[in-house]
Amino acid sequence: MNRTDRLYALVEELRAAAPQWRSATSLADHFEVSKRTIERDLSALQQAGVPIYATPGRRGGYALDLQHTLPPLNLSAAEVAAVASALAVGTSTPFTHAGRTALQKILAVLREVDAESTRELATRVRVFDRGAEEHRSLAAVEQAIVERRVVEIEYVDKFDETTSRTVEPVAVLGVQPHWYLWAYCRLREAPRVFRLDRIRSADLLDEQVRDRGLDPADIELHELINRGIVGDLTRQSTK
Predict the structure, then answer these.
(1) Higher-confidence residue: 114 or 166?
(2) What is the pLDDT of residues 131-145, one digit of tens each?
(3) Is the separation of the CB atoms in 194 and 206 below 8 Å?
(4) CATH class in words for 3-68
């Protein structure tokens, strides 16, 4: 059994045993490898984000948290390539970075034949990157939304004017072909919408966002269009 197949089988072995613990020794015996090899495999899976937990001691071992895992997925090479391609071209979409870690988890449990087919197909898909700076800004915005933290941004509006804003993220809005951050802007002392690809930099603050009674369910597309906020239909600045 090669390592890729063993990693896949190791996850399934822990899934079948859950919620019971399995010792590294028993797993090594089961897969007919050394205990050190099993420990390296488990470490690799943990680093890939698979929720495997360890308890020390003679009666300790490893267990898979079923509440934070999906059942086995049988994805074709085309399906995995579709996910990878969407993530590669979607650098201005929210949670792209979280999606890439999810992709790593998928790749970690692919059987070797599937992984080889996926790699071969990937050679026929080419994506041009637009730079790392935008990626860092979006990652900070994503984290601000998840952790409900205030963030300072440098924002370029449709008139190419740059302003520094301290904002309290509320939600992300998808209005094709763009994505927007809906947040309370302390500069304007009111809710504002910011196009994600116009955020040039973003720095997280330790401060938590306040409850200002803003509900994403209250947002209507026609209101955003009428106020001149969304996309190429804008008729006035969001400043």
Answers:
(1) 166
(2) 555 567 888 888 888
(3) no
(4) mainly alpha
